[in-house]
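User: For a reading group we're discussing how well predicted structures match intuition. Take ATP-grasp domain-containing protein. Before you show the prediction, I'll give you the sequence so everyone sees exactly what went in.
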Amino acid sequence: MDHFLFIETNTTGTGTKAMKIAKLKGYQIHFWTNDPDQYKQVAANHPLQLADYVKIVDTYDVDAMINLVQTASYHFAGILAFDDYHLIPVSRMAHFLGLPGHPLEALTIARYKEKTRHFLQKNDIGFRQPAFHTIENPSELSKDIPYPCVLKPVDDSGSCGVTICQNQGELMQALSKEMKRLRNKRGYKLKRKWLVEEFINGEEYSAEMLYTANGWELISTTRKKR
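Assistant: Thanks. Here is the predicted 3D structure of ATP-grasp domain-containing protein, as structure tokens, for the group to look at:
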């Protein structure tokens, strides 16, 4: 029987839906997590109950996970992640093992906000974006920053750590608070880098993309409530 590996999952249910689909297709499900307690709030379709095998491992240590996969007595047909923080580790594992996965360079540009901004700035593809600064400490705050502005960590998600600042005092206060936040709620070690962006007033939309055998496909766009 073929085996499928899930490295963590999200708490919205899409990851466990994928587990169910994989089980229906006959796969044995392996679920690796660094902390089972982070899924306590999942009432239905708990990943630990759906998985055939559960392993507690540091899911941010790619080399350790590759070593575990190489020494396993079974072959994994695929590896998946369903949260932002494990996309790159899973991509690295998939490429190392010769399994299907996202292109690592493109995924890195999409994953880290400052890399997205610099890529769009460097490549003139007609995409308009706000003025921005990348900073690693308060001394790098520029006097040219327009207010209001938005402070955001380059590698967190779900709007965590995002603050609208009306003036320099609020920006310094928000940055000071962020610099004390070393890990997020999923245990992910945050990069010590932030974006300060020009605030743009208006409606906000999100675009949901899916990478398939035909490349990236737009699944839906969502208008966000204010």
